[in-house]
Amino acid sequence: MHAAFASTMRLATATALLSAALVGAQNQMVQVQVGAETSTPGGIFQFMPNNLTASNGSVITFTFSGIPGNHSVTQSTFAAPCTPFKGGFDSGWVEILANTSTLPTWQLTITSDQIPIWFYCKQKIPAPHCNAGMVGGINIKPGPNSLAAFVAAAQKAPLDMHEGGLVGLGASASALPAIDGGATLFMTDSATAGPQTAAGGSAAGAGTGAAPSGSGAPPPSSAGRLGFDPALLLTVVVGAMAGAAMVL
């Protein structure tokens, strides 16, 4: 009887270890460079890598690494590569200054790995980054809607910079990008907007797809760097590095 009990316990332990290993393999931590290279001034207009595979529960960490630089991670569709997907996720513009010591990061959690997820950078200065090929895809399916076809379509697509939210189709975030005092986060709103602090990287509208809003007017110099209407600008400056939480 003792031998049978010991055998049962060994089997249970092995099953538990196998289950834990499978969960660990499924819930990946995927790293993506936004702006790609810290060694190239201003970075390059690419996501590296830009073709990702991630299962449900996996966390994709986007690191804004082009110094100085200004980029976004914005959900779009295969049919309109450079237009924000209505109800999609959007990091906002993350401006990285030359004196940035800690690179900003933003995390997405995969909520549906059965659908392809497309994204792009909506910055248009000095030229539209999306048209230059700064696009990517997650869980792309075999067939004509390939990454190469998406890149080719993006090169000719019109650029749209409307804001999105934190929750998108197939993936979501629980917080704005985590940045230090050497970087600035810019969002847009449908009303006149101004400076607003998001302590700890939290955001109004988290889990609703809504973008934060405020009141007042932004400095003209900030709007000039980004190339969009000052009346539609919301500036969020985060003074300390904060970790983005996972959405499960």
From TrEMBL:
It comes from the Eukaryota. Residues 197-222 are annotated as: Disordered. Keywords: Signal. The keyword Acetylation does not apply. The keyword Signal applies. Residues 1-25 form the signal peptide. Gene3D superfamilies: Cupredoxins - blue copper proteins (2.60.40.420). This is Extracellular serine-rich protein.
